[in-house]
Write a structure and sequence with these properties.
The complex is a heterodimer.
Chain A (H helix, E strand, L loop, with lengths): L1 H15 L2 H30 L6 H18 L4 H24 L7 H23 L14 E6 L2 E6 L1 H24 L1 H11 L1 H6 L4 H26 L6 H16 L4 H26 L13 H15 L30
Antiparallel strand pairs in A: 1-2
Helix pairs in contact in A: 1-2, 1-11, 2-6, 2-7, 2-9, 2-10, 2-11, 3-4, 3-5, 3-9, 3-10, 4-9, 6-7, 6-9, 7-9, 10-11, 10-12, 11-12
Chain B lengths: L1 H19 L7 H16 L20 H23 L4 H21 L1 H4 L13 H4 L3 H28 L1 H11 L1 H6 L4 H27 L9 H14 L4 H20 L13 H19 L17
Helix pairs in contact in B: 1-7, 1-10, 1-11, 1-12, 2-3, 2-4, 2-10, 3-10, 7-10, 8-10, 11-12
The chains are: A mainly alpha, B mainly alpha.
Chain lengths: ~350, ~300
């Protein structure tokens, strides 16, 4: 897949020169936000086995919690981020306790419909509390860094706050998540629960606690994705729902329930979306197809890839490697993850 | 009453997909929009337009009956083409794929100005009986209301007939146990495709009624929230029960109507601006509560004389 991206990029850069690098960098930034949204969604899917439509609204909720701390309480955006992470993690756990735990035995579609109800509720709660206007965080705007320039004209730029910081934060989180899933007890318990809940329960894992923790982590990741989206673009009630389908596309491309696949899918969706822009501009030229409003069609690129993956590889690109990386012999669990503890 | 009737048509269309066959169609808004735009393009007379408006494909001046048939055919055709590849997917993938395709169609409708008038939409859509009853708005509305009620009766009768037939039993069989139905020698894929297309055709008809009722349509009317609202109606009224989903549509509209008028009451003047949000929050909570505590809705699905598939 990366080979395919490289080939497309090389082909496009022949036509557009170094400009295409800019689109690639933009794609990486957008993609890294999708990665955070998609891994959270995928973790929940892995354990609860339903498509959580409320995940977009969890991102919006996180973005507005940071807005509350940043604009109403005059705190630094970093404290806003911390507050948003905790608030949205609690929200995720509440959703599990109040709704999804009771629907666990009822199959994937009942939970999906319930998540739509939660979507309607949360989006209107946000609009009721914060209004419908498009706003932004209170933070210092920095000038773009020029990475490559040719004869004084910038060719490749990145904004330190809106671009570079996003990339750094998401890279750190991806690495942390990987360490968590692979080496910590909670991560192992999560993977075991996602792989086979009954077997996990039989081997002494307190599945209820593990599921609650999964919701908390998914909520935290959603909040960070929401805040990063708010920093990169603006804060608005439709923030989460607007990207929900891209996040779903990322999850599907990677394979539902596979957090590593979701990481791959997030970058593919972000890069495809940005790289389709020069192609669409070309289609918009009068001598080619004179498509009106060509760049408005860029979301379609992500959906086309999603449909293609669904048709050619319905299990996603990371199919088969759901969450289990390696079988661990002698898995020892601390008390809170076993029955009787916590 | 007319919006309630349009909701009822949509709910009937969804009921055959979701209620009977168990297909989670996330793209109701798209088929509704395709029906509305096809009918609008067929019915409008074309220029002269007001100066701010740049026009759209149209000028065919067809009567409503032809436009409605065209809308149904177009919605059915698009449904057919979309369903061929993605109908093999699992329920949750199918939901996401249809929602994504609905967004694609909405993007095209919003941006293909030559075809649909772009963000301004299609204007000057005529009403079918205005040339006979004159320009009185109340009489005109009454004719549309009679048209909608007539269509609901016809669609209800047809759907009731086909869902009580052996064909309908196969659909419920697929919903309850796909593999058992397959083992009985039924072509599950083909039956699903038929049910999906029939539902899309009904949604296209609802779109045609919408465009003639409102006289103006624009892309903003077909957002994903309208898709979810139809699910609330179907689940509230009773999935799988055609009478129930019509009841659900009218109850939804009644709730809508009452809650928008609450702000005129003196007791609610202080929260008048908040009422729309509170209304949707109530609807969201209601949907969750229905799924949790009464998934069969108000009117339970009627079991026929055949032994239930369990």
């Amino acid at each position: 897949m990366f080979l395919a991206i490289a080939v497309v990029t090389a082909g496009l850069s022949r036509v557009y020169g170094a400009l295409v690098l800019q689109f690639l960098v933009n794609g990486l930034v957008v993609g890294s936000i999708y990665v955070l949204g998609a891994t959270g969604l995928s973790l929940v899917f892995g354990i609860r086995k339903f498509a959580n439509f409320a995940h977009g609204e969890m991102m919006t909720f996180g973005a507005y919690m940071a807005y509350l701390a940043n604009v109403y309480w005059f705190l630094n955006i970093l404290w806003g981020l911390v507050f948003a992470v905790f608030a949205t993690a609690v929200l995720g756990m509440l959703l599990e306790l109040l709704v999804f735990r009771k629907l666990a035995a009822r199959g994937p579609v009942a939970a999906l419909v319930a998540s739509i109800g939660i979507t309607i509720f949360l989006s209107n709660l946000v609009e009721l509390s914060f209004g419908t206007s498009i706003t932004g965080y209170n933070l210092r705007i920095a000038l773009n860094w020029v990475l490559i320039s040719e004869g004084g004209a910038p060719i490749l730029t990145i904004n330190p706050v809106k671009g570079a910081a996003t990339l750094v934060v998401s890279t750190i989180l991806i690495v942390l998540l990987h360490i968590m899933l692979r080496y910590t007890t909670l991560g192992r318990a999560m993977r075991a629960t996602a792989d086979n809940m009954d077997l996990a329960r039989a081997s002494g894992i307190n599945v209820r606690n593990v599921i609650l923790w999964t919701w908390a982590i998914a909520g935290a990741l959603a909040a960070i994705a929401g805040v990063l989206l708010g920093i990169a673009n603006d804060v608005r009630p439709a923030l989460g729902f607007n990207v929900l389908l891209f996040v779903f596309a990322a999850v599907i491309i990677g394979g539902l329930g596979s957090p590593y696949g979701a990481m791959l899918g997030g970058f593919i969706v972000g890069i495809a979306q940005e790289l389709s822009v020069p192609l669409l501009v070309w289609l918009g030229r009068p001598e080619v197809a004179s498509l009106p409003n060509p760049t408005a069609y860029s979301p379609i690129a992500a959906f086309l890839i999603m449909i293609l993956v669904l048709l050619l590889r319905p299990g996603g690109l990371a199919h088969g490697k759901v969450m289990v990386l390696r079988t661990h012999a002698g898995l020892r669990l601390p008390k809170i993850f076993t029955k009787g503890g916590g | 009453m007319i919006p309630a009737g349009i909701f009822a048509l949509l709910a009937l269309g969804l009921n055959i997909q979701w209620g009977h066959t168990g297909l989670f169609n996330g793209g109701i808004a798209a088929f509704f929009a395709i029906g509305a735009y096809t009918a609008a393009i067929l019915m409008t007379a074309g220029p002269p337009f007001p100066p701010f408006y740049s026009g759209h494909l149209g000028g065919y001046s067809q009567p409503f009956a032809i436009a409605a048939l065209g809308a149904m055919a177009m919605a059915g055709l698009v449904g057919f083409l979309i369903a061929i590849p993605i109908l093999r997917l699992r329920a949750d993938y199918f939901a996401i794929a249809t929602l994504a395709l609905a967004e694609v169609i909405r993007t095209i409708i919003t941006n293909a100005e030559g075809l649909t008038g772009g963000t301004l939409g299609v204007i000057q859509i005529p009403r079918p009986f205005d040339m006979y009853v004159g320009g009185d708005p109340e009489v005109s509305d009454a004719t549309v209301a009679i048209l909608v009620l007539g269509l609901i009766v016809v669609v209800y009768a047809i759907l009731e007939y086909i869902t009580q037939s052996p064909w309908g039993r196969v659909l419920r069989g697929i919903r309850e146990d796909e593999e058992a139905t397959l083992a009985l020698g039924k072509n599950v894929y083909w039956f699903r495709l038929q049910a999906f297309v029939v539902g899309c055709v009904v949604m296209g008809l609802a779109g045609a009624v919408l465009s003639t009722f409102l006289r103006v349509i624009s892309p903003g009317q077909f957002d994903p929230l309208s898709t979810f609202a139809i699910y609330v109606m179907v689940i509230l009224g009773g999935s799988g029960n055609n009478r129930g989903v019509v009841l659900g549509a009218f109850l939804y509209y009644a709730f809508d109507w009452v809650s928008t008028r609450l702000k005129d009451l003196p007791a609610f003047t202080g929260v008048a601006a908040e009422i729309p949000y509170l209304r949707f929050m109530t609807i969201g909570v209601l949907l969750v509560l229905l799924v949790l505590y009464r998934p069969e809705g108000i009117l339970r699905e009627r079991k026929g004389s055949y032994p239930p598939l369990r």
